[in-house]
Amino acid sequence: MASRNRRSVLLVALASAALLTLTGCGQSPAAPDSGDEPLKVALVTPEKAGDGGPTDQMLAGLAQAEEEYGIETRHIEATDPSTFESTISNLCQAGTDVAFIAFTQFTDAIKAVAPNCTKTKIVHLYADPYEPELENVRSVSYDTNGPAYLAGVLAAASTKTGKVGFVGGEALPQVNADYHAFAAGVEATDPDVEITGLVVGSWTDQVKGQQVGQSLFGRGIDYVLAYGGGASLGVVKAAQDAGSIVVYDGQVTEQISDVVSSTATQQFGTSIFNEVGEIVAGTWKPGHVVAGLADGGVVLAPNDLFITSGSEEAVAAFENALPEIEDVKQQIIDGEVEIPFNTDGF
């Protein structure tokens, strides 16, 4: 995936907190008049859709914006880095009004193309600030240490074996920070709980994800935070075989709901919907924004399906932990709990 700044989280009390709920309070900006040409909006991702990961979230937000604002949309899967610049340039030449571009793999390409593409607004999701600022580019980062910390609280409060784990996609500084935030949540809740962290080495390889999950569950670990993108689904499959529980960073389906107690996610779809709303309203500005606690940019959301499909023992432990998680969440909001930001390896 990519580099990011992240420190805060929103834990919603119900899994029914859907995309519309997370778009903020108040009325949405009005859609353009029927006589106006629809905004041409493109989404460019380095990953394919269909694994329940970030790309699917983005497409859901794009579809919601299309329905709400009558925009014209398209999705481009740019999996070859050698095509990044030409992909963005072609969108500009085609008269694209807004280009959402996902992850920091595209940073150099955006720097190269954006100065000659000023009629197209570029929203760079999951990216650091641009220095110097580009007049038509807004970058959006996500504060995900908070969900990781709360997942640590949940894991420590729910484990029966006293062993919990963390799975990251790749060995990046920001993934290290997520691990240490998770570990801090565990230690603050029960310092006797053992913590093991591993990385898959990929954000998309579900087979490797399953192998990493099997390695953890084979050690007696019964609660895991899977922060591996598309590879996390492999961890979930391993959890089903082992009878363990996962806090998942993807979209939950009925097929996996029996072992996914909650989701810890960046709400990319919410970001896309909100950004389109600002553009339609004429309030959008270039620069950098952090999606987090205040705007629902990140969440730790209970999975309602787990309540009805999980094991009786696991569900009871989960429900018992929820009040503590709510308390800690509020303490994070109020600044009473400081989550460490440590990028050292694990």
Give a written overview of the molecule:
The chain is of the alpha/beta class. It folds into two domains: 21-142 and 267-291, Rossmann fold (3-Layer(aba) Sandwich); 145-265 and 303-333, Rossmann fold. It is 37% helix and 19% strand. It contains ten helices and twelve strands. It has helices at 54-69, 84-93, 107-113, 145-158, 173-189, 206-217, 232-242, 268-281, 304-309, 312-333, and strands at residues 40-45, 72-77, 98-102, 121-125, 137-142, 163-168, 194-199, 223-227, 245-248, 260-266, 287-291, 298-302. Strands 2-1-3-4-5-11 form a six-stranded parallel sheet, sandwiched between helices. Strand 3 (98-102), helix 3 and strand 4 form a beta-alpha-beta unit. It is elongated and about 60 Å long. It starts with 39 loop residues before the first strand and ends in a 13-residue tail after the last helix. Residues 1-34 have low confidence and may be disordered.
